[in-house]
Amino acid sequence: MRCGNSLLFSLWRATLAIFCLFVLLGLLSRWNAVATSDWQVLSPGMELKYLPVTHPNAPAGANLTVLRIDPRLWEMELMGTSRTGEKAGHTAREWCETHKLTAAINAGMFKTDGATHVGYMRFQEHVNNAKANDYQSVAAFDPRDSQALAPFRIFDLDSPGVTLQTILKDYGSAVQNLRLIKRPGSNQWAEQDKKWSEAALGEDSSGHVLFLFSRYPFSMHDLNQELLSAGIGLVAAQHLEGGPEAQLYLRLGEKRIELFGSYETSFVENDSNAIPWPIPNVLGVRPRTSGTR
């Protein structure tokens, strides 16, 4: 009987140990999921995440906003005054409301005429600016062969075999902007004193579109380091706009976000801007009606 009891006790202890191990693994799994997948799902293919700013000078509560978009489920569009024929621009919110866009961000910097993009910009058959400059980043979408090509990609013009002409051979829409991060995740900015609120466009390792926004002013070197260390899989990014003109707007169901910048060295050196400024061009998204074009 003593031997039988000892065997039963050993089996009970082993069973308890296995049970405790499974409980511990479950808790660790749940903790890891909370720690690493805190994306808020807004709709299929669209997720939102706030990244706490780790820069030592940032105030408490400062964050970076990341809107992650699956271009297979969301259609991209460049919208602006050169398409509509208007004389004045609109806020990102107004562009969304007028043209039924779910979300929009600056398309990039513009010239003194208040309408023309500083680099090459084309949306399908409409060309805002046919002249390229020396900026090394081109975001392209509307692939001519949707089965063979990614629906969205940020190209580096100094990569072997990549030119604006080769990009346009494969894609119907493209926008050239100042590069922040070179594929596959190289910070292209040296340290500097200049800083500003920032709206940026990124691509992650899964080919998602990333709308990136920070009200808190960064130097671009520090912003890049912040984004690359955030665990969002960022592989390429381009600067869209800085200071009070930087914007990001989203309206999806009951969810509404309207973000706009303020600080820019040698322009608006404070955080007092309280309204979004009109801008001539935006990059927007809306749900696809059927598959990838």
Question: What does this protein structure show overall?
Answer:
The chain is built from 5 helices and 18 strands. It is of the alpha+beta class. It folds into 2 domains: 37 residues; 249 residues, no CATH class. The protein has an 8-stranded antiparallel beta sheet with strand order 1-2-3-14-13-15-11-12, with helices on one face. A 5-stranded antiparallel beta sheet has the order 4-18-5-16-17. The chain has a 5-stranded antiparallel beta sheet with strand order 7-6-10-8-9, with helices on one face. It starts with a helix and ends in a 6-residue tail after the last strand. About 5% of the residues have low confidence.
Please specify the SSE layout and strand pairing.
Blueprint: H1 2-36, E1 40-43, E2 46-52, E3 63-69, E4 74-80, H2 81-84, H3 92-99, E5 103-106, E6 121-123, E7 126-129, E8 137-143, E9 152-156, H4 164-170, E10 171-177, E11 179-182, E12 186-187, E13 196-204, E14 209-218, H5 220-228, E15 234-242, E16 247-252, E17 255-260, E18 281-287
Antiparallel strand pairs: 1-2, 2-3, 3-14, 4-18, 5-16, 5-18, 6-7, 6-10, 8-9, 8-10, 11-12, 11-15, 13-14, 13-15, 16-17
